[in-house]
Structure prediction request, 296 residues.
Amino acid sequence: GSFAAAFRGAKFVVHCASPFRYDVADPETDLVEPAVKGTMNVLRTARKVGGIKRVILTSSQSAVLTFNPPPDPKRPWSEDDWNVDTTINDHAYAYSKTLAEQAAWIWMSSAHNSQNYGMAGGYTSPDEIKAVLDAGGQEYRVSFDLVAINPGFIVGPSVSNRTDGESTALVKGLLEGRFNANGTKGGRCVGAADVRDVATAHVKAMENPSAYGRYLVISSTGITHLELAKAIAADPELEGFAMPQHEAQPTVYRPLYNTAKARRDLGVEVRPVAPSVVETAKELVARGLVAAAVQS
Prediction:
């Protein structure tokens, strides 16, 4: 109910806040509870306030991809896929985002006037979802529908000087030489998206009444941290920064993504990742947020 005052008179609600940390003291209280309870608080408050036409939920590619490579590494991931192999003790952030989005779809599916049956992962038919929710005795109607935006790893310029976010911290760490000795993270890589394209997707999801379901807003393929470093190093304005030259372990899987739905319904074409990362780096330097450069 803490959002009630802000929701009154609104037609659209965008829920874009969820903890994004890889290393936490307690995954349950630091990641899972805020993600799931925060999402449910937004939906329940929107129902109670009334008049809301649509809720746009910022989910993540982490709710789409499995952590382990699929049997067919050439098959693109799409909105039809769900993360099914992470746990609270194994990649807890991805687990928290998956639970939060599934909770949202299940809650929406339980509304008597819902058209969202079948969106939640882990069930093979709408009847299964309805049976689960009916067993809980939930009876309510909602005035809104739900759209989820599933972006990639966010890059691009920031509106603040904070550097504690995972994406900004990565670029800052590359510039400050934190990965030069041991190498960048390897093993697997993920897709990325410019923050401006992700923001546009949220706005288009409000403006297009035909938007529905989930939308992957992401590059067409994954990109490694080492490739991000090489993009920064290739820019003449940043050539004074020594970038890492190797990965801690080889990259063994590069996911592909099918983004046709976001292009068709939202008109969003995700810009190339490398220039966005370079722009992020230049902004951090210009704002004086990078420690003394490790000279190349």
